[in-house]
Amino acid sequence: MMRSFCLFSIFYLFILIIPVSAQNNQLSSTGTQAGNRRQALVLDINSRVLENGKKVVWSESKSKTSISGIPVGVQLVGSNIVVVVQFTPYIRNDGNVLVAQGQIWVAEPEKGVTYFTSIQTIPMGFGEPIYFFPLGESQNLNPSIEIIITVNPYNVSGASTEASTNSGNGKQ
Fold first, then answer.
1. pTM of the entire structure?
2. Which of 154, 89, 90, 92 is nearest to 165 (CA)?
3. Alpha carbon distance 129, 20 (integer Å)
4. Can you identify the CATH homologous superfamily of domain 40-153?
5. Distance from chain centroid for Cα 65
6. Could you tell me whether strands 144-153 and 40-51 are parallel, antiparallel, or unpaired per DSSP bridges?
7. Contacts of 151 by beta carbon, 8 Å cutoff, 6+ apart
8. Residue 144 pLDDT
9. Binning pLDDT at 50, 70 and 90, where does residue 54 land?
10. Beta strand pairing status for 97-108 and 144-153?
């Protein structure tokens, strides 16, 4: 009897602690926390489909707001291909990185549907364009897909700040 009372008490205390810590996490993830770790960011994403490696046959540009550690998704759908990519920026004292996770489904007439996945960790500086090729970088691919991501700090007016705001990792 005493043992079940102790277990119930521990369980009850654990339940009381969880909502308090969840509220603290919500408050700290709004970007008001001191330091750059939870700073609001703007990801400018330019997606393009290139024919013969040079001619742009389709393009789309988006700006999405995020914070360090929160992914931003991009989805491209074609007649025989679906590309889903998540970009997660991480602001760190020892150098900022962008993690790109890609999933690709390709329907080929004789093979059926093929699935590919990839994950890359890319060093990044604010204002520097990062080129991501979900299908690979080969010039032999026709058409090829290119996604260009530029990450900048979010400023009060809602626009991203210029590249002169350095990320602190020695890159300009």
1. 0.67
2. 154
3. 40
4. CAC2371-like domains (2.20.130.10)
5. 10
6. antiparallel
7. 41, 42, 43, 44, 89, 96, 98, 124, 126, 130
8. 84
9. confident
10. unpaired
Domain ranges of the chain: 1-30, 40-153
- What type of residue is 58? W
> Length of the chain, please?
172
Angstrom distance (rounded) from CA 34 to CA 68:
13
Cβ atoms within 10 Å, residue 50: 19
Question: What does the alpha-carbon distance between residue 160 and residue 168 come to, in Å, rounded to a whole number?
Answer: 17
Model pLDDT, residue 155? 81
For residue 3, which amino acid is it? R
CA-CA-CA-CA dihedral for 74, 75, 76, 78, to nearest 10? 180
Q: Which residue has 């299908």 as its token pair? A: 135
Highest mean pLDDT out of 23-27, 110-114, 158-162 = 110-114
